[in-house]
């Protein structure tokens, strides 16, 4: 689950793995959070586009593959794209429906062996391990969500030489303005400051707010603003 329902395109202990949908409640999953996202996915057979997010494609395309943590993976568009390019993917989401769809799509694409799907609630705890890339694509939520804390945990999960890529909405998409009430979105500079990174260990590679044309869930076409933060851990 990309933890924001405003985009029409397309995220303790590790909980339910692929193929174990809904067999039991997990103590590290907030039931209210899970219910919200399950109800969202129940609205249609496919909620996101299935395509990888464009900033991720732009940033990751030139990189040598390694290990990657996909936070709020949704129906698996990013994870499948990454696995298809040789990355070893750990993809987490709180919504079991999203994980089931992502797993099925990965199998259909022939990349299931390169992806480990995990049910994980980032409001409760963060996945363990270090990764060459940590991807946080639109990790925004209308529910209470410890965004800054989660993003700092994401930075701590980056291995030496690895990168953290954060992409967020800079504005509510045109097709979502009637249903979302964000007072404002943090700028890329504010997000970077919230990470509280050691300047002797981290290099900022990208900090910008590009615009792009996109299609909404009901075929609407509009302009989106992405807030992008890309940082590399040197040691």
From TrEMBL:
Domain called Methyltransferase: residue spans: 68-162
Keyword set, alphabetical order: Methyltransferase, S-adenosyl-L-methionine, Transferase
Ranges annotated as biased composition (Basic and acidic residues): 1-15
GO BP, sorted A to Z: methylation
Domain of life: Bacteria
InterPro entries linked to this entry: Methyltransf_25, SAM-dependent_MTases_sf
One example GO MF annotation: methyltransferase activity
Protein's organism: Micromonospora citrea
Protein name per UniProt: Methyltransferase domain-containing protein
PANTHER family: METHYLTRANSFERASE, UBIQUINONE BIOSYNTHESIS O-METHYLTRANSFERASE, MITOCHONDRIAL
Chain spans, region Disordered: 1-28
